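Lab intake sheet, docking and co-folding queue.

SAMPLE TYPE: protein with bound small molecule
LIGAND NAME: flavin-adenine dinucleotide
LIGAND FORMAT: SMILES
REQUESTED OUTPUT: full 3D complex as structure tokens
PRIORITY: normal
SUBMITTED BY: R.K., bench team

The fields below were copied directly from the construct record.
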Amino acid sequence: MIKTTRKITICGAGLIGPYLAIMMSNRGFEVEVIEKRDDIRKATAESGRSINLVMTSRGINALKKIKLWEEAKKITMPVSGRMMHSVTGELTYQPYGGEGDVNYSISRTELNRFLIDEAERIGVKFIFGTSVISVDHKNKVLMLESKNGEKSYPYEVLFGTDGAGSVVRKKILSLHNAKDRVDWLGVGYKELFMPTTDGGKPRIDINSLHIWPRGKHMLMALPNLDQSFTMTLYLSSKEGEITFDQLNNISDVENYFKTYHPDSIEHMPNYLEDFKMNKASKLGTVRTDHWFYEDQMCLIGDAAHAIVPFFGQGTNAGLEGCVVFNDLFDQHESWESLFSDFFQTYKKNADAIATMAEENYIEMSEKVGDEKFLRRKKLESFLHEKLPSKFLNRYMMVTYSNIPYANVYEVGKMQTEFLDSLNIENNDFSNIDLFKVGQFLDSVIVEKLKK
Ligand SMILES: Cc1cc2nc3c(=O)[nH]c(=O)nc-3n(C[C@H](O)[C@H](O)[C@H](O)COP(=O)(O)OP(=O)(O)OC[C@H]3O[C@@H](n4cnc5c(N)ncnc54)[C@H](O)[C@@H]3O)c2cc1C
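RESULT FIELD (auto-filled):
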């Protein structure tokens, strides 16, 4: 048990910082969180509007650990499948899994407010409107900047939960003489909005994640609690059929929507204005080989492993990381050995979900029309229906289980190879020898997962 530290300082009150603060406060530490933005709870509804998140098993498990899931669930919208919109307006519904396999859509802002409220209620101190601009590790002093100017501020142990552009990560890397790697996907996103009807009703099915897939670009809609939808447009940032750079004036934007997403236009009365007002952001994966420095600094969440959003797992992974960190806590006498164990344990999982999220973008953008790929997807659904306790595809393992991501990645590859080896040529699966499939799953997959 680590006994000598009194105070823990966390840099960043996004989604992971306040969660970690609750866990550490529950362990009896005095916890403070320094956040560069002003208090999000005081933002107006308009300025606080933000992208939604999909909360799945790992995030839910993390909230259960601090006994907050039942409360948090009240601000979510259950989503049970994908609704695909074709260019000509046909809808195809794909349930996520079996009965009870549900994801939860939640506003990032609402979740952020909820976690900060809970942390504050148990005594965590928040310092808003203040950036950490540098770290003096020799004297254990932070340089802070706020509208009142700069000041130095001591710390005992510092956690960097300051997101993809983490200042704490840069400091840790400089101490190891190392650099991080950012792999840009070449895809950007912009947020749009679908309000309710005048009568306050949803304009499209409220329990679905809606996708307008168009190869390298797509539109997505996730439901909000008030029955409106947050829309996200993903476009290539530089190359490809359609890029943000090409949509410079309003008539280009209008043409783009009329050509590719005509059925969405009537539901988004302000889409042109939203497009003009909201800026496009880039998507990338951050990979770094150093998450900690001696016994004084450690990264958690996007600061350690920012990933692209095509598996909806960034927050889920960050929260799962906190759970792993907390589970390891009692086995260590020093911060350094705890940080090191956390890195050894979770880095491989963070790497696996980063790769799977990149692969999922390719699946969503390039393989939606690939016959062999679609047949395998159907075969996976068929096998899950016939052998529900044995066969989970990769999506199900990521989303509805807490199987470590690295094992999911490995097992997913083995399953794909096995299914491809069955050489199924059409969508008639009646001749599949389910006994043989069951044997393979028992002997290889179930055994592997048990280990
Ligand atoms: C389009 C999109 C869709 C997504 N969808 C999903 C999804 O469906 N499901 C999912 O699980 N994840 C999703 N994610 C990922 C998710 O948003 C991130 O993984 C998550 O926000 C990471 O939380 P964090 O607290 O680590 O970092 P952040 O949320 O980035 O928070 C970092 C905080 O640190 C503060 N900060 C930064 N620098 C400093 C500094 N120097 N001093 C003080 N404070 C500082 C920032 O102001 C911020 O509040 C999505 C991401 C994107 C871009």
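REVIEWER NOTE: The chain has three domains: 7-182+284-361, 194-283, 369-450.
SIGN-OFF: pending second check by T.M.
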